[in-house]
Amino acid sequence: MNAIRLAIVMITIFGLGYPLVMTGISQVLFPHQANGSVVYNEKNQAIGSELIGQSFTSPRYFHGRISSINYDAAASGTPNYAPSNNEMIKRTEQAAKEWLKQHPGKSVDDIPLDLITNSGSGLDPHISPAAASFQIPAVAKATGLSEQELEQLVNKHIEGRALGIFGEPRVNVLKLNMDLQKLIQAKA
Question: Where is the chain membrane-spanning (predicted)?
Fold first, then answer.
């Protein structure tokens, strides 16, 4: 009988109480993050999360990393292929061909690796500053904006290392494209 009472108490404390307390604390201290880091447009409509990449296909926008799961958060993960894997080589070569088609005058060596490889989760919302800069001429051509304006926009969106030491500088593609859209609309 004592074991049953103890089990009920533990289930109540750790199965209900603890999650409720942690949810309450996170809602008070970190409401944006606790609610999924949702990004809203100027009409207060949710358009995505700053933590999950999206597919941008129009040449008017910057593109993120490729995703072998089509940015489906329910299917997070990606095949863990070795660099020597034939499927990985074919996919990377195909991605490089697509980038070169969209960016004439560039060579395979010019393409930043994060544009032709996917992240471990397949959901990475960031690209390197080099990957964003690589796309500036094509975006300028598609939008009519100057390369200097786009370079300033990219520089504005470069996020530093976490706590100054972890990770690499990066650019959130969704936030960059939101500001790009505002710039396009302001010029129209």
Answer: 7-30
Task: Provide the token pair at 1.
Answer: 């009988």
- Region 89-98: mean pLDDT is 88
- State the Cα–Cα distance between residues 128 and 172, nearest whole angstrom: 9
More confident residue, 188 or 130: 130
Identify whether the C-beta of residue 128 lies closer than 8 Å to the C-beta of residue 158. Answer: no
CB atoms under 10 Å from CB of 2, counted, come to 6
> Residue 75's pLDDT band (boundaries 50, 70, 90)?
low
In the chain, the amino acid numbered 157 is H
Q: How far is CA 38 from the centre of its chain?
A: 13
Would the pLDDT of 134 be above 70?
yes
Distance between CA atoms of residues 157 and 123, nearest Å: 19
Identity of the amino acid at 70: N
DSSP conformation letters of 44-88: S-EEEETTS-----STTS------TTTT-GGG-------TT-HHH
Of 50, 91, 49, nearest in space to 67 by CA: 91
Is the pTM higher than 0.85?
no
Coil/strand/helix, residue 124: coil
Answer yes or no: are the C-beta atoms of 115 and 127 closer than 8 Å. Answer: yes
| 11 three-class SS | helix
**What are the residues facing 46 on neighbouring strands?**
40
